[in-house]
């Protein structure tokens, strides 16, 4: 299986950005964790980050065209982007929404996700481990669908 691990706005600053909320792990550290897990699963990983909504739309479409799965931390676009939601539902790619922080323990505007209804499921609050759990989840879903 191929899995696109997509990161939205401000996640390039992980490790420096609000470390009391997001911890000291960088996105490069997270990529290493994800690649280690991918190796044990036999999955190929496309690990990408963009601050631009349209770029994320392009990558979601690319994942769909390749028959890949998606693990996405859409950052703040989670709470605002109809474009990402439409891209996910249109792509047909099995998608797992993830967050580093427990968004439900935070401000009210983070409790609503526009992409959760078109995702297989949501994982949040486990820090960098949310990515690893998300990868396992989407890999499992794809294996089941292939059977
Ligand atoms: C986040 C949670 C979002 O609400 C926030 O806008 C982010 C990061 C997380 O991983 O905890 O940028 O997606």
TrEMBL record:
Transmembrane segments: none
Keyword Amino-acid biosynthesis among UniProt keywords: yes
Catalyzed reactions per annotation: 3-dehydroquinate = 3-dehydroshikimate + H2O
Gene3D superfamilies with a match to the protein in the record: Dehydroquinase, class II
SUPFAM superfamilies: Type II 3-dehydroquinate dehydratase
Binding site for substrate: 73, 79, 86, 100-101, 110
Active site feature: 22 (proton acceptor), 99 (proton donor)
Top-level class of the enzyme under EC nomenclature: lyase
InterPro entries recorded: DHquinase_II, DHquinase_II_CS, DHquinase_II_sf
GO biological process, one term: chorismate biosynthetic process
EC number: 4.2.1.10
MF GO annotations: 3-dehydroquinate dehydratase activity
Listed pathway(s): Metabolic intermediate biosynthesis; chorismate biosynthesis; chorismate from D-erythrose 4-phosphate and phosphoenolpyruvate: step 3/7
CDD domains, A to Z: DHQase_II
Site residues (Transition state stabilizer), renumbered to this chain: 17
Annotated Pfam families: DHquinase_II
Keywords tagged on the record: Amino-acid biosynthesis, Aromatic amino acid biosynthesis, Lyase
Protein role: Catalyzes a trans-dehydration via an enolate intermediate.
Oligomer status and interactors: Homododecamer.
Family: Belongs to the type-II 3-dehydroquinase family.
NCBIfam families on file: aroQ, PRK05395.1-2, PRK05395.1-3, PRK05395.1-4
HAMAP family: AroQ
Protein name (database record): 3-dehydroquinate dehydratase
Source lineage: Bacteria, Pseudomonadati, Pseudomonadota, Alphaproteobacteria, Hyphomicrobiales
Gene label: aroQ
């Amino acid at each position: 299986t191929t899995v696109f691990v997509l990161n939205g706005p401000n996640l390039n600053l992980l490790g420096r950005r609000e470390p009391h909320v997001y911890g000291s792990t960088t996105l490069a550290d997270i990529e290493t964790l994800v690649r280690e897990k991918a190796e044990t699963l036999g999955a190929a990983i496309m690990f990408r980050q963009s601050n631009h909504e349209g770029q994320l739309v392009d990558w979601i479409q690319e994942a769909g065209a390749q028959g890949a799965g998606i693990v996405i931390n859409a950052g703040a676009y989670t709470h605002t982007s109809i474009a990402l939601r439409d891209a996910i539902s249109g792509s047909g790619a099995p998608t797992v929404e993830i967050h580093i922080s427990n968004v439900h323990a935070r401000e009210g505007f983070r409790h609503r996700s526009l992409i959760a209804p078109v995702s297989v499921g949501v994982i949040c609050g486990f820090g960098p481990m949310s990515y690893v759990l998300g990868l396992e989840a989407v890999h499992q879903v794809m294996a089941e669908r292939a059977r």
